[in-house]
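Hi again,

Forgot to attach this to my earlier email, sorry! This is the prediction with S-adenosylmethionine bound. I've pasted everything inline since the attachment limit keeps bouncing my files.
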Amino acid sequence: MAGHTSVGHTPRWHYVVTSAPESWEMALGDIQRADLSARIIESLAPGLFVVQSEFSPARLGDALWAQGVFVRHVFPILETVDCCSYDKAAIIQAATCLGRVLDPTKTVSVQTRVMPGVGMTPYDLNTPVAEALTDRGFAIDVKHPDQAVSILCGPSKAYVGASSVKDNLSDWAGGARRFAHDPQSVSRAEFKLLEAVELFSIALPKAGRALDLGAAPGGWTHILSDRGLQVVAVDPARLDDRVSEIGLVTHIRATVQVYLSRHVTGPEFDLIVNDMKMDAGLSARMLGECARLMKPDGASIMTLKLKAKHPHKQIKGAVQILSRHYRVVGLRQLFHNRREVTVYLRRRSLERS
Ligand SMILES: C[S@@+](CC[C@H](N)C(=O)[O-])C[C@H]1O[C@@H](n2cnc3c(N)ncnc32)[C@H](O)[C@@H]1O
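Structure tokens for the complex follow:
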């Protein structure tokens, strides 16, 4: 397989698609909503499959940015190499040759994933391919690349592609955004907020006030106060001592319903975040009620917790409620989301709410 194939006049592309293991059907649904002709041609592992589509990488990427939720990462297969367990040199050569489809004025990262049971590590391929691309004049940028050479090594085949990371939906191999462990962190939920800020390119306010709904044990509050925001943290549960002792943090030990019934001031918050463990529709309604507390140019980041059945219906219902007050700017199942999705919202102008 090299580049796309054509049957009649219809070009067909093959893509490696990655989602959370339990979300693969929804991820396929996302692609098929854009391109009705798309179909799975190989299932490699839960949440890892090869799809055939008539859409080019740029068109598929645009469609998934606009409407997709569950696809975490996608890359076009431009070459395959058989028996990859034995033939590192062939994979390195195939990946290096794909430099020809890349823009030499833009940065590139080599992103390798190796499936279990294959006798090599990503490092075995990343380093020689990156060195060969450097020799050809490419600037390597691992953290914020413009383009990626993507390699997935399966037990009998390596899939190799080259594309813009925007079309891939993520700067990271397979969309797996890992953060270094911070000994100061108070909950793993912190990674969700960090990932959302990065993926949706959110410019957090440098000062001002934030409201954190469902704040305990305090991971999100910790991040926001660390960035200089005064945080009102609402949760009936206890905050970690390291967070409750921060001077910028006020803990309201109550449910959001009680907080809203007592809190009657005008718009005062620049940012409202909501990670409440709550039905998605109810959580959206609560955030809707909070719109009156948000400044006109305010932003919000929330998670929607999903029940097993009909996730799209739950998302659609919540988005309808949110849309009365907010514009949905981003909606995605992040690498750090489990049975939930993350939504990035901006306040609609006040007269429309
Ligand atoms: C996933 S945890 C939040 C984790 C938090 N974002 C962090 O970074 O540490 C969900 C929280 O929602 C809170 N919660 C559930 N229902 C709530 C309600 N009605 N009002 C306020 N908080 C609520 C729970 O007490 C729980 O602490």
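The domain at 5-175 is CATH 3.30.2130.30 (VC0802-like). The mean pLDDT is 94.

That should be everything now.

G.
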